[in-house]
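Batch job 17 of 40 flagged for manual review because the log was empty.
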Amino acid sequence: MVARAPLAITIGDPAGIGPEVILGAWARLVAEGHAPAAFVVGGAQLLAGVAEALRIDCPIVPIAEPAEAHLASAAGLPVLAGLDAPLMPGQPSPEGARLALASLQWGAKFALSGVAGGLVTAPIAKAALAAIGWDYPGQTEFLADACARPYRDAVMMLAAPGLRTVPLTVHVALAEVPRLISVDLICHKARITAAALRRDFGIAAPRLAIAALNPHAGEGGQFGDEEARIIAPAIAALRAEGIAAFGPVPGDALFTPRARATYDAALAMYHDQALIPVKALAFDEGVNVTLGLPLVRTSPDHGTAFDIAGKGLADPGAMAAAITLAAEMAERRAAGGG
């Protein structure tokens, strides 16, 4: 299978580890013979400076348009010319934020128009973007807006070898979670997850494990009634629709090796319930995948790490995994006709 178009990789905040993990990931994928057709949206001079400073063997090949990426990749990492910023590792700046924003905006346009087969986003600094007028909680919400979809349709999945998790609530206080979970929320995100597992991961009959909220799944109501009042009815509704959902599974049992073999994705009630197991088991291989949008989008499951930027300490594994997964998803969509 061949993707219809090269992947677009956004540079993220150039003061963070984004540039060096992009270079390191590309060098690793080339060495392994697994590099897909792709290009970075801007930062050619900056990336060349990072490669030289950190002695990363990754030649930069400036290109004028995405279509050149297929041929240019034979000589190095294709990078769209025209967008750049000064090289200042660990020092976020307005110039860097403007490059990060322009890279994200153009990357989204390329992916939505079909010029790019998918989008891989490097980490951004939300505070730096807010300082130049950006008004989104994160890249996921920006992309939902760009796709003219409600935020609730952009579902976060954390994917790692042998484990996929979906948090039903994300960046909210833990005290708010019991109020926010509902039968509608569970069913909505479970449907999007099941559809994405079929379309983007090639799983014909997805199995979804639904986590409990309370210890011991509420222990028959002793520790809370959300399992009986909300989660169990949602599971029943999903099963009535033909989705192989089961639970509520107590959180302390959901991620054991034996349990992980029984499902294709686990839907967790809150942020840390979903992210802790992925980061504990596969920190350098975890990928943030956005489900429910008309474009393919992946991102490494880590932040800008300004404290180690430019020191050659960042592991490119998660970026390599994000690029690889985006290519696989794009190939499946191309083979499926959309």
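Reviewer: the log was empty due to a logging misconfiguration, but the result itself is present. The mean pLDDT is 94. Unflagging and moving on to job 18.
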